[in-house]
Every structure is written in C-alpha cells, then in structure tokens.
C-alpha cells in the first residue's frame, strides 16, 4: 500500500485507537429526502466535531458542507438507482476519479449487491474503482448492500465481505449479525458496521458495542444518529464506545447527561 493511501486511511481509522466513527449521510442518493436529512447542512453541522469522517455524495458535499472544514470525506461514487425503481441493485459509478481528487476526498465508496440480478455489474464497479483509486492513493470502501431478497446472516455477509476484500476493497462496510465474529475473521481488511433502521438509543449503543467487541473497526452510522431526538448526544455516546471502550450502560448514561447539559445551556 502506498504512503498516500495509508495516510488517507489513517485520517479515517484513527491510529490512536485503531477505530473510527464515520457519519453516514448519503441516504438521499437512492432514498431522496430521508427523514432527518431533509436539509442536510442543518443536520450535519452540529455533528461534525464528533465524526471522524463524513460519508456523502458530491451533491451534498458541494452544497451543504463548508469547504473550510477539515473533516475527512468518504465520497459515495455509485448510484443510478432509486427506492421506487425496478431493481435497487442496478447501480453504476456516477462520479469519476478526477472529481474525487478535486474534492480532496480521503476515500471513495460504492455498494455491491452480491446475489442480486446486477451482482456482476456492481462487483466490476468495485474492481474498476479500486484500479482507479490505487493509481492516485485513494482507498475504497465497499458497502455490502442488502436488498429485500438478500440475506443478513453471517454466512451471506461473510461471503459478500470476503468477495469485496478479494476484489481489492481497502475496508468494508456491512451489517452486524449473529455470528459476526466469523464475518470479521474471514475478511482480511477492516470491517465497519452500518447502523441500519432507527432503533431505541440503548439498543443502537448495544449494537455498536457488540460489533466492536466482536472485531469491527468502527461504525458508519446514519439513521441511529441523525434520526435520534438528540443526535449530538447520541454521536458522543457512540464515540465513547468506539474510542473509549465504554460499556453500553456508561455510554447510555453519557447520552442522558449530554441531553441534560444541552437542555440547561
Ligand atoms: C446505504 C449506505 C448508507 O450510508 C448506510 O447504510 C446508512 O447508514 P445507516 O444504516 O446507519 O442509516 O451505505 O447503502
């Protein structure tokens, strides 16, 4: 791995802890104005001091993030599908490497749909993106997307993560599952988990805790942070688990204490 690529990765996965808290706000690329992200800039701004990187599309980056900010950017470069289209897996590369370089990104990301109708196309997207990224020292994060018909069990996720790593992804984003250790053990690159649909805060903290305990390198959480009634308190609680080894109860205490502090200030 060359120096630039390692350096970019180190800006996302913090060398001090070996972990990362990424904030995912790219949902609009196929979901449109997702609840909590209707005005992306308003959602993102108060969370930035607590995120190690921001995962988003070029459209939201250009319009909704101040370029004077030094937050590492993980740029979503795939799309061309929508929640109302006929097949979510029909995804292509939407943003070229020159644009990623102009935007000074730390990593590029795309989804792969293993087991879907467009599996081949999305795996070739990944391989070609890795080829481009490696020319310029930009790492690639592969997201193992799960459509309605696809599994979420350890066997399926281990298959998808391993394929992503074999094709050259430098890190992989997937879902937490029963038997998650197996997914981590059989994937030779770092694994980050998505948060998934909004669940109660204590449950989301437990999810983050379990994932880290079982070998995840971090979280790339979206809805469980920005759809919380207290997103700033929530991201700080998640950070305490990922970077400070807090227990679920300690992190939840921190969440509640931050809410109290915010209500008096
Ligand atoms: C969609 C994505 C999203 O960024 C990610 O899954 C969203 O995070 P969360 O599930 O925590 O809302 O990659 O393919």
User: What is Rg?
Assistant: 17 Å
H and E order: HEHHEHEEEHEHEHEHEHEHHH
* Uncertain parts: none
User: Ends: how far apart?
Assistant: 47 Å
Strand line-up in the sheet with most strands? 1-2-3-6-7-8-9-10
CATH architecture classification name: Alpha-Beta Barrel
Number of structurally distinct domains? 1
* Structural class by SSE content: alpha/beta
Relative strand content: 15-25%
Written overview of the protein:
The chain has 265 residues and is α/β, with parallel strands linked by helices. The protein has a single domain (3-229), classed as TIM Barrel (Alpha-Beta Barrel), CATH 3.20.20.70. The chain is built from 12 helices and 10 strands. The chain has helices at residues 3-12, 28-31, 40-44, 58-64, 97-102, 119-136, 154-166, 180-185, 201-213, 223-226, 231-244, 248-264; strands at residues 20-24, 53-56, 73-76, 78-79, 92-93, 107-112, 140-144, 171-174, 191-194, 218-221. Strands 1-2-3-6-7-8-9-10 form an 8-stranded parallel beta barrel, surrounded by 6 helices. A two-stranded antiparallel sheet has the order 4-5. Strand 9 (191-194), helix 9 and strand 10 (218-221) form a beta-alpha-beta unit. The longest helix has 18 residues, at 119-136. It is globular and about 50 Å long. The N and C termini lie far apart (47 Å). The mean pLDDT is 96. The structure holds ribulose-5-phosphate. Ribulose-5-phosphate is lined by residues 24, 26-27, 55, 111, 143, 145, 194-196, 221-224.
């Amino acid at each position: 791995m060359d120096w630039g690529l390692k350096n970019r990765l180190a800006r996302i996965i913090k060398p001090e802890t070996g972990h990362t808290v990424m904030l995912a706000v790219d949902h609009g690329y196929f979901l449109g104005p997702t609840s909590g992200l209707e005005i992306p800039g308003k959602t993102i701004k108060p969370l930035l001091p607590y995120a190690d990187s921001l995962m988003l599309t070029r459209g939201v980056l250009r319009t909704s993030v101040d370029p004077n900010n030094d937050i590492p950017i993980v740029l979503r470069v795939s799309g061309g599908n929508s929640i109302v289209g006929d097949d979510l897996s029909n995804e292509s590369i939407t943003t070229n490497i020159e644009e990623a370089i102009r935007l000074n990104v730390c990593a590029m990301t795309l989804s792969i749909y293993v087991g879907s109708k467009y599996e081949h196309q999305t795996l070739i997207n990944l391989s070609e993106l890795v080829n481009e990224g490696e020319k310029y020292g930009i790492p690639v994060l592969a997201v193992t997307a799960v459509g309605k018909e696809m599994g979420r069990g350890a066997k399926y996720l281990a298959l998808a993560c391993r394929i992503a790593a074999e094709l050259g992804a430098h890190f992989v984003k997937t879902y937490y599952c029963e038997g998650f250790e197996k997914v981590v053990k059989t994937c030779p690159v770092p694994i980050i988990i998505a948060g998934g649909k909004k669940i109660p805060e204590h449950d989301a903290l437990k999810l983050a805790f379990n994932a880290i305990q079982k070998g995840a390198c971090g979280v790339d959480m979206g809805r469980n942070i920005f759809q919380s009634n207290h997103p700033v308190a929530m991201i700080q609680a998640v950070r305490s688990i990922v970077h400070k080894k807090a227990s679920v109860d300690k992190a939840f205490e921190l969440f509640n204490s931050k809410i109290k502090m915010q209500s008096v200030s």
